[in-house]
Amino acid sequence: MIEAITRGDIAGYLSTFFYVYSILILVKILLSWVPRIPDNAILRGAVQFVDDVTEPYLGLFRRLIPPIGVGGMGLDLSPIAALIVLQLVGTLIVRAIAG
Known about the structure:
This protein is mainly α. 73% of the residues lie in helices and 6% in strands. It has three helices and two strands, in the order H-H-E-E-H. The chain has a two-stranded antiparallel ribbon. The radius of gyration is 17 Å and the shape is flat.
């Protein structure tokens, strides 16, 4: 017997999507602190995947919030703002769909 997808199912899928995307942004932040190993193909592929998936969203916030110069280094606060907005919008969307 085939069951219909309910609003609760869709809300659950979207909640999972927002959670996974938040984790990918956190991975991107952590990867920015670690030097990359260019000769490891698997690591390079994983890093490229995280960059390809997160950069369009993070790029929106980088245009609005430029890095802050701290002691000759740039501190990028845009991923924090992106995570906050993602969590707020995600929660609103999931709750609106779930009813």
